[in-house]
Backbone:
């Protein structure tokens, strides 16, 4: 076990209770007129500087809520509590 | 009590007189002479006593050479009594690398030496010691590779010389001779975890416990007390061990008052502190414990590190000779185990504890010829010096051991001044040596503290502690017991304040204060920390340490070991530095320091100090290198613990088992794969095609989605136009990911206004809710998705007689007119079990699937079996289903799809609602992008040319059969252009069919595939097949509709 | 005896203000590229910038397993050439890389794995790389002590034995290549952290480092798991996900495990080092991460798996656990690219946990790519644009969940 995440419903829980949902990249681009490259860039390509970033996590072994939280990939720790759609 | 919290054995009083060769058991003795324990060493009988460790019993029995060293096969002896080198790793009861110094003696143990055949006093490889000059650091990299042919020979030789313990890979196993001890695991929570049960740790635990917070204290030895435990010196009118016992008594009293608040674990080394204060370790079972070892993990709000100190090894010529041991080892042998460490001793120390040990051993009758102290004159505790000199023992300040003499074991030693010339030799059989004490920094490194070398204490200290971590005890350089206890109280109060601050913060957020914490807050003023700090500051601070880097006069020929485990010498450090590896982090890899069983914990500080000296840097530049967990080595069985096997069984598991099902794990489930030893399942398949089969398909994912926006959600995740889902009718569709790859397929039935029932593949039942919610997370849609997978069982009857069977168990209309293909009905089974009944065709026959509450499954099963008896009903399993559906060309995710192909590539593009961009269907943009891309892999059906029976007429295919099997590759010229996903010989068709993923453009319909399999190199089997469109069986699809 | 004379393996060099070629990352890929730039193309004006010390990253943190039993032809060819280089480099560098050609045994635990292994065997043997499909009994003959009974949760159903594979002393590769590169004129700068990339009119012109600014004509990013952070300095988005991968060793034992074995079902690979330790690993936490923190969770997971696969290991003790970064791509194949939108900029990353065994061969072809500006035929399969076209390499059959490594 490493660090803990703050589930908006359950509070601080061990990271292994959660599913990682990736970096926040906004809602999916409108499909009308969407180019292939634009789509795959949105799906696959990321900028990952060593800075805290917003991410999606799912509390699968808990309450089943997707939420956003900020985590620093350099420290591998959550930097602030969740404020997701829970 | 389970693992219980234990405080270890009490001190055993002198219940019986000392047997021959033993010292009288004093007040600190833990050995019970009234309980002899017989065991064997090298097959010879030896007797020890309850309370002995294997090593103390062997030493008492006169054993001096415990094993042979890794590289040079030098004889090695008892060294630390704390398992800080591999010298005394032995084979105990067949288990290699057991630590004799710390393993409690049990009756009947069989003990053997390692890295030697038989008696370690005689070793045929002992000659290697003479070759150390030929083997400078990194020499392996410079030799043996020329000529190239020679390397494999050398390599085998090197391999044979490697390692120490011997493991028999096939002699163990189920009910095996050795490692079958019971393992347990325990998960703990604490406000304050205290690491170390010495005076500092105990004081910290008491301070925290008095504040009402939950405390867990972990002590690696079998009892509390730390270095007070065996010290009889008087302090303020009380013997030090009494002082330790008093503290322990207070702590244990606090525990018995509130066992849920205070937990004390002895024989419990910590293996690591991981992110956010997760403390892990294991407890070695003793006495009545129901386990041999117990793995535990403790999530703590705060951690008090009070791990204490250990002897810093003194690096000097021949410092590994049996008879050279650390201060703690000699002292504890005598005081804890009543074993005389030697007859005539010389000491070379760097700390007052060493002087105290010398005086104490003299008191116990060990003849001490001299005590060298690496510190300058005047730095010593005058009282101790006086006590030694009173006995006529010369104390040589500013001197240290420069050499040990004697072949098999120490016969004499040489002392020299650190500055100046001259030397003195003494005959002795025991050389007690250290370079002073070094803090046990493993835990600090483990919590991620940044460490720096302190030129006052000559040990590492943290520059910065992570939040919630506090430091106490002798590892800070404190020696005065009052100071150590005060530092513990300060750390304890600090931890309490930190917990309460955290609780307050949480309370502020959640507006709910835990009663316990509030209570604690009242009792615990912020003033406590200030008071504790004042107390601590008024007491003596950290004492000046000893900065000696190595013994005096280390010459070129010296065999001065920095790392005993891997025979890493001072000379090797020099050689590493000369080759460019002049920082510890590089040298440790190149020269092999700190990579053996003692890890960097023992040799690390010396290596860094010596490297700094070599670079010409001040001692402050002795930066520590990374220290890695586990801080104590746990056995794999212990870490694995009970190894819980968590899986699911269907409601019909018992029925299937009764019918001879052979089960296999499929995802989370245990599922019936076959019903006979015939892996081709011919009978099961035939019966479905001819009569009727019954399948337990309960793991199928079953969901209900309802709410105003349910349809919106369906439109997002399914690739088809889900407005087409109607009442009473199954709509088949699929889900893709954003790469257009197939992730799931299943049925959707509309059951009411904004109310749908849907099925997923068994493997997707788990992630379906996650998937829906993920892909609709920005939309704020109002829908509920309920997972009914485990609530509802599923029974599938398939075959020409399926309707006849169903008709017998229900009054509902199941005629073709009343209940057409792909229909979905609520029907009543038997005496009134309401079932969703779906009429499907996955296996290509007339088929009904009944979804009923799990609790009714057995009843419905029995009814169907009984009703089907006249119609030849028999169960079939997953493999039969796999073949039946393949004959129909129905795709199974993962079997006929993979990462390179999209929905359209596998011929399921007809499901995709191309016109819809408004719903933002997941996967649609990828399908659009790839639909017309040339050269993609496509799924094709094929018919193997010839009978498909192969040359030997076997159905199964495979080696020698001349017919392909799953995974055979498709080749075109010199290229691999695809592979066979699934192929079977169909009894119904009379030929071998299959599906393959093949690069587009290689072959068209009616074309030839060249299929090649080569399971063993040089034995290719080649056959051809003709591309035909699936489905292979019943291409018109009349059977499921009949 | 000449070999007893101890010299520095690589020379300390002054930091110049400008180099023809600068390589970021002092691991096997960077060092090999520098070595081959000189050996094959005579380019000596090369600097290797390493933020810590050489071999600090994945090169020194792997379990040293080498093999060529990949899933697709492009990958098999690349790794097969890589396998042949160990002996060649041992000679060329005059440094014993200690290639132990012990063979690898992959274990399958499902009916599906039998087909998957047959596909691998068929592919390898067709390409002249030996692999053999084994039944459970044969697996136990290759590796005595494997539990081939029905006791494990996922009983062994098949094996794929791959004789050409084995293990190499990973540190030796780093040091040997450093020796070779340095002897051929390359400057190795340790403790030199890159903090920025300088560009001018669509070209890279240099790097800003903790030791000062350095100009260059060509820049290679070969920093393993840290490559994404470095690419981000010039705004390059990549389909690479740096993840922490863990490994561990047990106390040393006399040799009894004479091959590498691995199991996808249990997420385990294990081998016995030349020193006798059982080196084992594989777990990755899913979240992007630049730390090398090991976890208690994994120690437990690994123990659970190993005692099921080989019950004799029950009494063996773990001695050390560590972690490194794996730069994962969605299709488990690397990205070797010179068309990144900046002239003179090259990327060799995304190796996941295949970075060690590919080091020398990747260096060889990256050197060709950087020296000539022309993409070598061997590297055509490893272009970045495949992810913009949704054409995966097929190195894994597994389907991604949400995209990227999510």
Residues:
């Amino acid at each position: 076990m490493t660090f803990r995440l703050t589930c908006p419903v359950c509070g601080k829980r061990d990271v292994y209770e959660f599913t990682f949902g990736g970096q926040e990249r906004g809602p999916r681009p409108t499909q009308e007129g969407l180019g292939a490259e634009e789509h795959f860039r949105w799906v696959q390509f990321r900028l990952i500087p060593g800075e805290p970033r917003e991410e999606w996590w799912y509390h699968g072994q808990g309450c089943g809520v997707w939420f956003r939280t900020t985590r620093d990939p350099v420290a591998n720790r959550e930097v602030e509590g969740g404020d997701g759609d829970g | 009590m389970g693992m219980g919290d234990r405080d270890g054995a009490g001190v055993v009083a002198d219940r019986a007189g000392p047997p021959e060769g033993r010292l009288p058991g004093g007040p600190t003795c833990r050995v019970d002479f009234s309980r002899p324990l017989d065991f064997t060493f090298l097959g010879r009988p030896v007797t020890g006593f309850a309370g002995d460790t294997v090593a103390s019993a062997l030493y008492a029995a006169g054993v001096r050479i415990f094993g042979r060293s890794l590289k040079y096969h030098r004889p090695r002896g008892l060294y630390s009594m704390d398992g800080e080198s591999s010298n005394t790793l032995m084979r105990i009861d067949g288990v290699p690398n057991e630590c004799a110094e710390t393993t409690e003696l049990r009756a009947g143990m069989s003990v053997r030496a390692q890295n030697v055949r038989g008696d370690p006093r005689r070793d045929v490889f002992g000659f290697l010691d003479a070759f150390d000059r030929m083997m400078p650091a990194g020499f392996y990299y410079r030799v043996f590779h020329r000529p190239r042919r020679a390397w494999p020979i050398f390599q085998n030789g090197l391999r044979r010389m490697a390692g120490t313990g011997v493991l028999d890979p096939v002699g163990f196993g189920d009910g095996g001779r050795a490692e079958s001890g019971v393992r347990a695991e325990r998960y703990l929570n604490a406000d304050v975890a205290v690491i170390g049960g010495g005076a500092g740790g105990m004081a910290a635990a008491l301070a925290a416990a008095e504040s009402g917070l939950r405390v867990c204290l972990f002590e690696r030895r079998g009892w509390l007390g730390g270095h007070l435990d065996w010290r009889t010196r008087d302090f303020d009118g009380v013997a030090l061990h009494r002082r330790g016992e008093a503290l322990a008594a207070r702590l244990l009293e606090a525990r018995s008052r509130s066992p849920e608040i205070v937990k004390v674990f002895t024989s419990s080394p910590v293996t690591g502190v991981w992110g956010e204060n997760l403390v892990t370790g294991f407890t070695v079972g003793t006495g009545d414990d129901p386990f041999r070892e117990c793995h535990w993990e403790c999530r703590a709000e705060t951690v008090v590190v009070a791990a204490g100190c250990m002897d810093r090894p003194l690096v000097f010529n021949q410092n590994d000779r049996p008879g050279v041991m650390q201060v703690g080892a000699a002292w504890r042998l005598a005081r804890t185990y009543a074993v005389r460490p030697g007859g005539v001793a010389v000491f070379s120390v760097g700390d007052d504890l060493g002087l105290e040990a010398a005086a104490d051993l003299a008191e116990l009758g060990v003849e001490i010829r001299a005590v060298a102290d690496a510190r300058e004159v005047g730095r010593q505790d005058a009282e101790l010096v006086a006590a030694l000199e009173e006995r006529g023992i010369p104390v040589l300040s500013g001197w240290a051991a420069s050499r040990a003499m004697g072949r098999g074991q120490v016969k004499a030693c040489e002392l020299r001044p650190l500055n100046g010339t001259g030397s003195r030799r003494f005959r002795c059989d025991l050389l007690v040596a250290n370079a002073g004490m070094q803090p046990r920094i493993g835990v600090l490194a483990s919590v991620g503290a940044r460490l720096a070398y302190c030129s006052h204490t000559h040990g590492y200290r943290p520059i910065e502690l992570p939040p919630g971590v506090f430091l106490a005890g002798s590892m800070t350089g404190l020696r005065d017991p009052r100071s150590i206890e005060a530092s513990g109280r300060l750390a304890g109060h600090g931890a309490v304040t930190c917990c309460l601050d955290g609780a307050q913060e949480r309370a502020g957020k959640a507006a709910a204060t835990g009663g316990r914490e509030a209570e604690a807050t009242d009792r615990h003023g912020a003033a406590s920390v200030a008071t504790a700090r004042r107390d601590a500051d008024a007491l003596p601070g950290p004492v000046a340490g000893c900065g000696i880097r190595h013994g005096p006069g280390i010459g070129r020929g010296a065999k001065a070991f920095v790392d005993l485990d891997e025979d890493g010498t001072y000379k090797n450090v020099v050689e590493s530095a000369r080759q460019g590896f002049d920082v510890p982090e590089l040298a440790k890899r190149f020269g092999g320091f700190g990579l053996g069983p003692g890890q960097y914990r023992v040799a690390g500080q010396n290596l860094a100090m010596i490297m700094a000296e070599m670079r010409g840097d001040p001692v402050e530049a002795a930066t520590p290198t990374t220290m890695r967990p586990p801080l104590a080595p746990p056995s794999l069985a212990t870490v694995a613990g009970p190894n819980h096997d968590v899986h699911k069984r269907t409601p019909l598991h018992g029925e299937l088992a009764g019918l001879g099902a052979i089960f296999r794990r499929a995802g989370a489930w245990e599922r019936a794969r076959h019903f006979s030893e015939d892996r081709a399942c011919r009978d099961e398949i035939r019966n479905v095609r001819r009569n009727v089969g019954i399948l337990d398909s309960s793991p199928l994912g079953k969901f209900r989605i309802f709410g105003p926006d349910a349809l919106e959600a369906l439109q997002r995740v399914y690739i088809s136009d889900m407005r087409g889902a109607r009442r009473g009718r199954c709509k088949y569709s699929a889900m893709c990911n954003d790469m257009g790859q197939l992730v799931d397929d299943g049925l959707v039935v509309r059951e009411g206004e904004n109310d749908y029932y849907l099925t997923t593949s068994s493997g997707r039942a788990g992630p379906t809710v996650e998937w829906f919610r993920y892909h609709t997370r920005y939309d704020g849609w109002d829908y509920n998705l309920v997972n009914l997978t485990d609530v509802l069982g599923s029974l599938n009857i398939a075959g020409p007689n399926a309707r006849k069977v169903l008709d017998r168990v229900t009054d509902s209309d199941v005629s073709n007119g009343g209940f057409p293909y792909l229909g979905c009905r609520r029907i009543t089974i038997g005496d009134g079990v309401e079932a969703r009944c779906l009429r499907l065709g996955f296996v290509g026959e007339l088929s009904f699937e009944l979804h009923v509450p799990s609790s009714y499954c057995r009843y419905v099963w029995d009814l169907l079996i009984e009703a089907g008896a006249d119609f030849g009903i028999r169960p079939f399993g997953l493999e039969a289903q796999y073949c039946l559906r393949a004959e129909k060309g129905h795709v199974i995710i993962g079997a006929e799809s993979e990462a390179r192909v999209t929905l359209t590539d596998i011929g399921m593009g007809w499901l995709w609602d191309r016109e819809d961009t408004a719903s933002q269907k997941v996967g649609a943009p990828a399908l659009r992008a790839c639909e017309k891309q040339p050269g993609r892999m496509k799924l094709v059906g094929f018919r193997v040319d010839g009978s498909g029976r192969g040359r030997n007429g076997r159905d199964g295919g495979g080696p020698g059969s001349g017919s392909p099997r799953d995974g055979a590759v498709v080749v075109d010229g010199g290229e691999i252009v695809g592979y066979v996903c699934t192929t079977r010989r169909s009894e119904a068709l009379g030929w071998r069919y299959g599906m393959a993923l093949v690069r587009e453009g290689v072959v068209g319909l009616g074309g030839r595939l060249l299929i090649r399999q080569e399971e063993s190199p040089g034995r290719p089997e080649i056959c051809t097949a003709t591309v035909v469109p699936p489905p292979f069986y019943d291409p018109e699809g009349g059977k499921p509709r009949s | 005896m000449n070999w007893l004379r101890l010299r520095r393996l690589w020379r300390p060099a002054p930091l110049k203000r400008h180099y023809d070629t600068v390589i970021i990352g002092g691991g096997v890929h960077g060092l090999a590229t520098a070595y081959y730039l000189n050996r094959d193309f005579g380019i000596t004006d090369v600097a290797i910038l390493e933020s810590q010390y050489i071999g600090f990253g994945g090169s020194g943190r792997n379990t040293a397993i080498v093999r060529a039993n990949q899933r697709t032809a492009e990958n098999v060819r690349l790794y097969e050439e890589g396998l042949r280089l160990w002996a060649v480099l041992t000679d060329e560098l005059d440094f014993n890389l200690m290639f132990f050609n012990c063979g690898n045994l992959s274990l399958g635990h499902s009916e599906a794995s039998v087909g998957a292994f047959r596909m691998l065997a068929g592919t390898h043997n067709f390409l002249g790389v030996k692999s053999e499909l084994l039944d459970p009994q044969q697996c136990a003959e290759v590796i005595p002590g494997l539990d081939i009974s029905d006791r494990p949760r996922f009983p062994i159903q098949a094996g794929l034995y791959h004789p050409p594979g084995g293990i190499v002393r990973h540190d030796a590769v780093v040091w040997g290549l450093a020796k070779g590169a340095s002897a051929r004129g390359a400057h190795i700068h340790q403790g030199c952290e890159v903090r920025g990339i300088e560009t001018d009119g669509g070209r890279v012109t240099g790097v800003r480092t903790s030791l000062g600014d350095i100009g260059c004509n060509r820049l290679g990013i070969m920093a393993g798991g840290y490559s994404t952070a470095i690419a981000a300095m010039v705004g390059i988005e990549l389909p690479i996900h740096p993840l922490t991968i863990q490994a561990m060793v047990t106390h040393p034992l006399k040799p009894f495990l004479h091959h590498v074995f691995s199991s996808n079902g249990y997420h385990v690979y294990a081998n016995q080092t030349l020193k006798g330790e059982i080196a084992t690993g594989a777990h990755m936490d899913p979240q992007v991460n630049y730390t090398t923190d090991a976890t208690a969770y994994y120690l437990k997971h690994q123990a659970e798996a190993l005692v099921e696969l080989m019950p004799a290991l029950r009494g063996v003790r773990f001695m050390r656990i560590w972690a490194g970064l794996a730069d994962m791509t969605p299709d488990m194949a690397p990205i070797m690219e010179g068309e990144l939108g900046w002239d003179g900029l090259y990327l060799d990353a995304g190796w996941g946990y295949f970075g060690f065994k590919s080091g020398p061969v990747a260096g060889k072809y990256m050197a060709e790519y950087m020296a000539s500006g022309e993409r070598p035929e061997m590297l055509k399969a490893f272009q970045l644009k495949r992810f913009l076209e949704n054409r995966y390499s097929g190195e894994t059959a597994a389907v991604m969940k949400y995209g990227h490594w999510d």
In short: The two ends of chain B are 66 Å apart (CA to CA). The CA atoms of residues 313 and 664 of chain B lie 55 Å apart.
